[in-house]
Amino acid sequence: MAHNCLQCIKYLMFVFNLLFWLGGCGILGVGIWLAVTQGNFATLSSSFPSLSAANLLIVTGTFVMIIGFVGCIGAIKENKGLLLSFFIMLLIIFLLELTIVILFFVYTDKIDKYAQQDLKKGLHLYGTDGNIGLTNAWSIIQTDFRCCGVSNYTDWFEVYNTTRVPDSCCLEFSENCGLHSPGTWWKAPCYETVKIWLQENLLAVGIFALCTALVQILGLTFAMTMYCQVVKADTYCA
Question: Can you list the disulfide-bonded cysteine pairs (predicted)?
């Protein structure tokens, strides 16, 4: 009976981690694709230029693949060391995510203030050599969200040292329309507009976060259960 239980958990964990590994491959693939076709998905931060969507996906995909691989081999080989390593790695990631979420809610106001300051610094890189990604990202955000600047369209005045904004701020796009009067520009601040959009889609974000947490908890449960079963089987055989 114990042997059948161990075999059942073994194959369930193998399938679980195989799907986990395939998911990591998909995330890594998207990250590499974005890196190759980089431009529209670069970071808006001047303090963390490497913190782009492509790099985040590549790092995330790599970690998921490694963890999934360790879990697969640990399950199929019934290796206690690998099972325990898988459990510890997944637990560390889960605790880090939990810590980040708690810190985010505790320091929301400070994060808001710092983020706005950092984004305003990033505006000065707009249109400069080697920052096509940031330039395109701001153009897309301002066009899609119908906003201009971080907290106000006047943020761009400091960048250009004159009364003008990028053409992506215009109500009706045309060449050099950013040189026209403020009446022809979007007035909404991009930071608040995007923040409101995220709040309106908080349910979807919450469901995604909950599903991610459940998958991780399921993985931890599988790993520890199988580890205990392998230990029991080894003790019984001894």
Answer: 148-169
Q: 152 vs 6, 27, 182, 189, 193, CA distance in Å?
A: 61, 35, 11, 5, 11
Q: What's the rounded Cα separation, in Å, for the pair 136 and 134?
A: 6
Structural domain span for residue 95: 2-105+219-237
Per-position DSSP letters for the chain, written without gaps between them: -HHHHHHHHHHHHHHHHHHHHHHHHHHHHHHHHHHHTTTTT----SS-TT--HHHHHHHHHHHHHHHHHHHHHHHHHT-HHHHHHHHHHHHHHHHHHHHHHHHHHHTHHHHHHHHHHHHHHHHTTTT-TT-HHHHHHHHHHHHHTT--SSS-TTHHHHHHTSS---GGGBSS--TTGGGS-GGGB--S-HHHHHHHHHHHTHHHHHHHHHHHHHHHHHHHHHHHHHHHHHHHHHHHH-
Does 67 map to a domain?
A: yes
Can you give the pLDDT at residue 47?
A: 64
Q: What is the pLDDT at residue 209?
A: 85
Domain count across the chain: 1
Residue 56 near residue 9, CB atoms below 8 Å: no
pTM recorded for the entire structure: 0.76
- The string over 46-70, giving b where at least 16 C-beta atoms fall within 10 Å of a residue's C-beta and e elsewhere, is beebeebbbbbbbeebeebbebbbb
Nearest to 185 by CA among 204, 206, 164, 216: 164
pLDDT < 50 regions, the chain: none
pLDDT tens readout for residues 109-120 = 898 899 899 899
